[in-house]
Amino acid sequence: MIGTLIVMGTGEASLRREDVTSALETTLTALQAMGADPMYRVGGTSAALLHGVHLPAGDVDLLAARRQDVDTVAAALSSFPCLYAASWLPESSQYFARYDVNGVVVEVSTVEQDTDSDGLECAGRGPWQHYILITCGAHRVPVVRLELRLATELLRDRPDRYEPLLDHMAAQGFDADLLGRAMTARGLPLERQRWVHDRLAHSWPRSQ
Fold first, then answer.
1. Where are the alpha helices (DSSP H) in the chain?
2. Distance from C-alpha of 176 to C-alpha of 17, rounded to nearest angstrom
3. Does the reported pTM lie above 0.70?
4. Residue 49 belongs to domain spanning
5. Is residue 116 part of a domain?
6. Is residue 195 a part of any domain in this protein?
7. Measured between alpha carbons, how far is 91 from 82 in angstroms, rounded to an integer?
8. With pLDDT > 70 as the criterion, what percentage of the chain qualifies?
9. Domain count, the chain
């Protein structure tokens, strides 16, 4: 299956949810075929798509626990075009690789930054503790919780991403404590945090 790009209102290309699902299923099936079971999480905008949020997404982001997990995924995808061979990126403290999986860009990396917080999407214990399992074909995929994703998009000040996330969470519910820790971990000003809570005030927070 070739990844199908659609054009969002901003004019930029975006993957559909089924493109993400297909690329993940292909990747995980290749890992299964070689008997590998790396520790990973799906993050980024592709995670939001898997949760059912409609927003722009250009690639699939896999967070790996260890560098050897990145190498394992790279080995499983060795029959696909390599766009960036597994390498250490000192400027971002990542061990990173990028592949083209049937027209969908799949990136896999570590994020090697120390933190005591559980509120960051890609660093510390947050992504490993706060996730849900979503079915992708024959596989159950661990996907980072939206509270962590929202804090990332608020920090980046990308309304085309955080507005759909806020709408979805207002309709479906959210973990208010986790969201608060995530926004604090990202260093968002208190005024911005209050604005977010006001936006979500009429939803039904859930504690998990």
1. 17-33, 44-51, 67-76, 126-129, 146-156, 159-172, 176-185, 190-199
2. 26
3. yes
4. 5-145
5. yes
6. no
7. 21
8. 91
9. 1
CA trace torsion 94, 43, 187, 167 (10° rounding): 160
Rounded Cα gap, residues 106 and 85, in angstroms: 12
Tokens linked to 118: 């559980």
102 pLDDT above the threshold of 50:
yes
182 located within any domain: no
What the block records as the tokens of 172 is 């479906």
Long-range Cβ contacts of 26-34 (<8 Å, 24+ apart): 26/101, 26/102, 27/60, 27/62, 27/73, 27/76, 27/77, 27/101, 27/106, 28/136, 28/139, 28/141, 29/137, 29/138, 29/139, 30/76, 30/77, 30/79, 31/72, 31/73, 31/76, 33/76, 34/75, 34/76
Q: Is residue 24 in a domain? A: yes
Question: Residue 80 belongs to a domain with what CATH number?
Answer: 3.30.460.40
Spatial CA neighbour of 111 closest among 142, 133, 86, 89: 89
* Predicted confidence (pLDDT) per residue in 54-87, tens digit: 999 999 999 999 999 999 999 999 999 999 999 9
Number of Cβ within 10 Å of residue 140's Cβ equals 12
